[in-house]
Design brief:
Layout: H1 2-63, H2 66-74, H3 78-91, E1 97-101, E2 107-112, H4 120-123, H5 128-131, E3 135-136, E4 144-151, E5 154-162, E6 177-178, E7 181-187, H6 190-199, E8 203-209, E9 217-220, E10 229-231, E11 236-241, H7 245-316, H8 325-355, E12 363-367, H9 368-378, H10 380-385, E13 389-394, E14 398-402, H11 403-419, E15 426-434, E16 437-444, H12 451-457, H13 478-488, E17 492-498, E18 502-510
Parallel strand pairs: 4-10, 13-15
Antiparallel strand pairs: 1-2, 1-7, 3-6, 4-5, 5-7, 8-11, 9-11, 12-14, 15-16, 16-18, 17-18
Helix pairs in contact: 1-7, 7-8, 8-13, 9-11, 11-13
GO cellular component, one term: membrane
EC number: 2.7.13.3
Pfam family, one: HisKA
């Protein structure tokens, strides 16, 4: 029973701690995985932007050039465009094709590595409004830009450059002029997206429209993703397989953790079983000890009462006076020793009965202040012998409790106060009504105890001094027995003691108790 009472809160606390640890770990893992997903989204967005800027730089490099100005604007030369611009497309692996529009937005030249895959009319219609912003204000300033075109479920990244002369200084034109533009194109086909993501360690990158439901994490391709986007009526979404390093670490450690937890649980179960058996055996042994002491005390008390009775008769000379002084002294010692031994046996018997659960209380109604005065009167001879000053201050109160047990408690506390108070000392007793309780305080000016000595005295058979050196006889059961009796009456006891100053014992009892305790 006791081991279960001990282990249930311990196991509960351990389980709560384990659950809290798992919850915190899951939260940390979840936050780590979410941060990786956000990081992947930022990387994808940044890389698409970098690709658009790279295409814009290539377009600017091929359009802001005196030869380009001469052969594409001043004197359009188709052959030059095929050889020069087409060579650029063939020389860079992330360019799929190029379209050159004249100043009237008419296709002057187009080249694709695989013409069957591309249709300029798929790209240009939505782009024309943007291209109208490409106007020259002089003959030296360049203009370039990038854009995304999303059409018919396809994803194009464009780099655009306006044809411009390369003069060190140029006067402003009378009015802005439209110039030819070079449009370099990269389509993010499924294979390109896969390769694009693999280079970034982002796997299974796919393009979806709103009619499809991505199975992994995703983000929309809109103006928050890229500044210039042209698309049809369907929103477009990039999805990818998320990286979950936190979850992977958790899964890698889950099996070892479960194994360790299983082994620890099995070990604890074995410990609990053995400890329960051990405690049960101790309880049985303690119960047997208490019953044995109770039985033996009865067996010893019967002949001891005879010894006390006969020695008392001899001491008093009932049948024949004893004139020999030494014999009389010996009979007196026999009687005193018998009475002392009977007191010890009574204490052991009382404690054994309480521990064995055989003590039955018999509550009755009585005046507690009168009972305290009777106990003080009973011990008055002992106090007078030591010339102690005993004072009482008691409130009147009716109590309903076991009168005999309360009397035993009071006699034990008072006898200890008198026993351990030096000649000429003082013992003060007070009784106070506190709501529905009665508070009894017994204070003496005796030898007192240190906290360590008080702990020893509160233990069963505990005595502060050694058997041979102690100045006051006793069994070491006084304080433990007081504690047990007080608990029987559902009261409480507090002991405060100061070495060489004195001891104060405070007893608190409820006024009314149930009929069966």
């Amino acid at each position: 029973m006791y081991i279960r009472q001990l282990t249930i809160p311990v196991v509960s606390i351990l389980l709560i701690c384990a659950a809290g640890f798992v919850y915190i770990l899951q939260e940390a893992v979840g936050r780590a995985d979410e941060e990786v997903i956000r990081s992947d989204a930022r990387v994808l967005e940044a890389q698409v932007g970098d690709l658009g800027r790279s295409l814009a730089l290539i377009a600017e490099d091929n359009s802001w050039w005196a030869d380009a100005y001469e052969n594409l604007y001043n004197k359009p030369n188709l052959e030059w465009a095929k050889v020069t611009i087409g060579e650029t497309v063939n020389g860079i692996d992330f360019i799929d094709g190029v379209i050159i529009l004249d100043e009237n937005d008419t296709i002057f030249f187009q080249y694709f590595e695989d013409p069957s895959l591309y249709d300029a009319n798929l790209i240009l219609p939505d782009l024309l409004t943007y291209l109208q912003t490409f106007e020259a204000v002089d003959n030296s300033s360049s203009k370039s830009g990038s854009a995304l075109v999303l059409k018919d479920g396809r994803f194009f990244i464009l780099g655009i450059g306006m044809v411009q002369n390369l003069l060190e200084k140029s006067e402003p034109l009378p009015k802005p002029e439209r110039r030819p533009v070079l449009i370099f194109i990269r389509e993010m086909r499924p294979d390109n997206l896969q390769a694009f993501g693999d280079r970034l360690s982002i796997h299974d990158v796919h393009l979806h429209t709103s009619t499809e439901i991505p199975s992994a994490v995703h983000m929309p391709i809109d103006r928050s993703f890229f500044p210039t986007v042209y698309s049809d009526d369907l929103p477009y979404i990039l999805s990818w397989q998320p990286r979950t390093p936190g979850t992977e670490i958790l899964m890698d450690t889950a099996i070892p953790f479960l194994l360790i937890f299983g082994v620890a649980s099995a070990a604890f179960a074995i410990f609990f079983k053995r400890a329960s058996r051990f405690v049960s055996d101790i309880d049985k042994a303690n119960q047997a000890k208490s019953e044995f002491l109770a039985n033996m005390s009865h067996e010893i008390r019967t002949p001891l009462n005879a010894i006390i009775g006969f020695s008392d008769m001899m001491r008093l000379g009932i049948f024949e006076p004893i004139t020999n002084k030494r014999n009389k002294e010996y009979i007196e010692h026999i009687h005193e020793s018998g009475v002392h031994l009977l007191s010890i046996i009574n204490d052991i018997l009382d404690l054994s009965k309480i521990e064995a659960g055989k003590w039955q209380t018999r509550p009755e109604e009585f005046e507690v202040d009168a009972e305290i005065e009777e106990c003080v009167a009973t011990l008055e001879p002992s106090a007078s012998k030591k010339e102690l000053h005993v004072s009482c201050s008691l409130d009147k109160m009716l109590m309903y409790t076991d009168k005999k047990i309360l009397r035993q408690i009071l006699l034990n506390v008072l006898s200890n106060a008198i026993k351990f108070t030096d000649q000429g000392g003082a013992v003060r007793i007070s009784g106070t009504n506190v709501d529905t309780e009665y508070l009894i305080e017994i204070e003496d000016t005796g030898i007192g105890m240190t906290p360590e000595e008080l702990a020893i005295a509160s233990a069963h058979f505990g005595q502060v001094q050694s058997t041979y050196a102690r100045d006051h006889s006793g069994t070491g059961l006084g304080i433990p027995l007081i504690h047990e009796f007080t608990a029987l009456l559902e009261g409480s006891i507090t002991i405060k003691s100061t070495k060489d100053v004195g001891t104060t014992v405070t007893l608190t009892f409820p006024r009314n108790l149930p009929e069966t305790i």
